[in-house]
Amino acid sequence: MTTPVPQASSQTPQGAGSTPIPSPLPSRGKAGEGSNTTLGTFGVKSGLAQMLKGGVIMDVINPEQARIAEEAGACAVMALERVPADIRVEGGVSRMSDPAMIKSIQDSVTIPVMAKVRIGHFVEAQILQAIGVDYIDESEVLTPADEEHHITKHNFKVPFVCGAKNLGEALRRISEGAAFIRSKGEAGTGNVVEAVRHTRAVMGEIRRISIMNEEELYVYAKEIRAPFHLLKETARLKRLPVVNFAAGGIATPADAALMMQLGCDGVFVGSGIFKSGDPATRARAIVQAVTHYNNAKLLAEVSENLGEAMVGLNIDAGLKGGRLAERGW
Amino acid sequence: MMPAAAPLNSVTVGVLAMQGAFAEHQKVLSKLSCKIKVIPILVRTNEDLQKCHALIIPGGESTTIALLARLAGILDPLKEFAKTHPIWGTCAGAILLSSQAVGLKKGGQDLFGGVGICVARNGWGTQVESFEAELEVKGLREGERGFHGVFIRAPVVLSFLPQQPDDPPIQVVARLSADVVPPLAGLDIDPSIKTDQTDVVALRQGMHLVTTFHPELTKDNRFHEYFVRECVLPSVQASTR
């Protein structure tokens, strides 16, 4: 097997984020012979998100935490230098993490490793794709690099997850190429109220559009600034066309099960695990809560004796670090 | 522990619902039209498992699925179930059905076993190596039409393990064509393990079926129909005779 693996078109750097038309997808097989395999299709991007469903994705800052997360049953880890709670306290500009630190986490676990880039920072995304991360989070938790444009995510082989507060925002991100959506919540607060607000907004809008006729859908697409074809597809499916997780402020097994019962496909837990008293036990309890989210008896069992939860913050005008969910356009 | 004398006009096929793409399998099964009615159920407890004539282990993260199965107390029942009932493992499910696996997390993980193969977890690398490919499959309905294989951080079948005299033979159901088999990712594989079957992406041993790709992510239900026709029905008929 010495067949060369052709890379993406040589004129456009793969995932440059600047081409108006998605560059041709790279393929394996004999060069020039119309190969019959394709890398980085939307199918494999959204497919990986489907494999993460019913699971918990945990923020980790070093290989030791990543191993604890894997042993506790995380279906993926998010590698970052500071969890959102620390970003709030310390302030300053938050950027993509050091690739060496991300690689050390990739080497320590077998589950997918995700990492965050700033909104609009397509070069950070090119770097993460080059080191082979499994998913990129174009995240409002980091300081935005662009106050108008998000990354053109179709141009990348690596898939992207993006946050959304409502249906219009979710569909705009999908139209840019996001293969996975999460609520924004209010990261680093340990307060689930915003994740509930965003999830209820999306689910409620989907219920409303599912009974609209085509004329009404045209008007609604205009109102919420969503592409019509994606809105129509969402109405037909009665759900988002990609996987939808809860994120932002989830701190307990009950929080996780609440988000699942509201209709989410899985949860991200950021600061909630490693800012708590007993991360390994809490992580495992949240993993079980997501699988058995309808089983109150089991939820009661796993909620016992978890130690201190992370300190929760009220989301008001005095919130240190401000409202991260407002970032994104 | 067969379900109480189920009349043979329906079979119950469970989908292990610990984590992963179980809803997709359930949806395909619920729309399947076969010689016999297929009733799909989600399996989260041993009680659920005992209602099933057969089981599908979906794609997901095999470490997570194995841990949750142990915590839910169905790890040993699953191993027993595999001895007497058909199981189909897709992707993570293929890893869990294998007798041996490499590239596992530090300290290894639980496998349910049942199929005498050695697989490599994420054998072709990370998500950026995930791909789609057309496959020629033996035994599918409308076999002249290829099957679209979706490979996501897929496990790789490295080799077939030496068989015991009473083990059923391993039958290859689909291979990748030689010019599109990706190179193995830089895995630490013990030299005693052969790597001569890396093009095999679907296989059967006895009543078990293994696919390293995801038929449940396509609109093509022929693999589900194949599993019911070739694995589930013969097994149910044999046990009620």
UniProtKB/TrEMBL annotation, chain A:
Top EC group: lyase
Molecular function GO terms recorded: pyridoxal 5'-phosphate synthase (glutamine hydrolysing) activity
Coiled coil, from the record: none
Name this protein carries in UniProt: pyridoxal 5'-phosphate synthase (glutamine hydrolyzing)
Pathway where it operates: Cofactor biosynthesis; pyridoxal 5'-phosphate biosynthesis
Annotated Pfam families: SOR_SNZ (PF01680)
UniProt-listed NCBIfam families: PRK04180.1, pyridoxal 5'-phosphate synthase lyase subunit PdxS
Catalysed reactions listed for this entry: aldehydo-D-ribose 5-phosphate + D-glyceraldehyde 3-phosphate + L-glutamine = pyridoxal 5'-phosphate + L-glutamate + phosphate + 3 H2O + H(+)
Domain PdxS/SNZ N-terminal: residue ranges: 42-247
Record PANTHER family: PYRIDOXAL 5'-PHOSPHATE SYNTHASE SUBUNIT SNZ1-RELATED (PTHR31829)
PROSITE patterns per UniProt: PDXS_SNZ_1 (PS01235), PDXS_SNZ_2 (PS51129)
Classification via Gene3D superfamilies: Aldolase class I (3.20.20.70)
Region (Disordered): 1-38
Organism the protein comes from: Pterulicium gracile
Annotated Polar residues bias: 1-17
Amino acids binding D-glyceraldehyde 3-phosphate: 200
Keyword field: Lyase, Pyridoxal phosphate, Schiff base
Active site: 116
InterPro entries: Aldolase_TIM, PdxS/SNZ, PdxS/SNZ_N, RibuloseP-bd_barrel
Domain of life: Eukaryota
Recorded family membership: Belongs to the PdxS/SNZ family.
Residues annotated to bind D-ribose 5-phosphate: 59, 188, 249, 270-271
TrEMBL record, chain B:
Gene Ontology CC terms, in alphabetical order: cytosol; glutaminase complex
GO biological process: pyridoxal phosphate biosynthetic process; pyridoxine metabolic process
InterPro entries (alphabetical): Class_I_gatase-like (IPR029062), PdxT/SNO (IPR002161), PdxT/SNO_CS (IPR021196)
Protein name: glutaminase
Annotated organism of origin: Pterulicium gracile
Gene3D superfamilies, per database record: 3.40.50.880
One example GO MF annotation: lyase activity
Family statement drawn from the similarity comment of this UniProt entry: Belongs to the glutaminase PdxT/SNO family.
Pfam family, one: SNO
CDD domains, per the entry: GATase1_PB
PROSITE patterns: PDXT_SNO_1, PDXT_SNO_2
Catalytic center residues: 91 (nucleophile), 214 (charge relay system), 216 (charge relay system)
Keyword NAD: no
Keyword list, A-Z: Glutamine amidotransferase, Hydrolase, Lyase, Transferase
Catalysed conversion reaction: L-glutamine + H2O = L-glutamate + NH4(+)
EC number per UniProt: 3.5.1.2
SUPFAM superfamilies: Class I glutamine amidotransferase-like (SSF52317)
Binding site for L-glutamine: 60-62, 121, 152-153
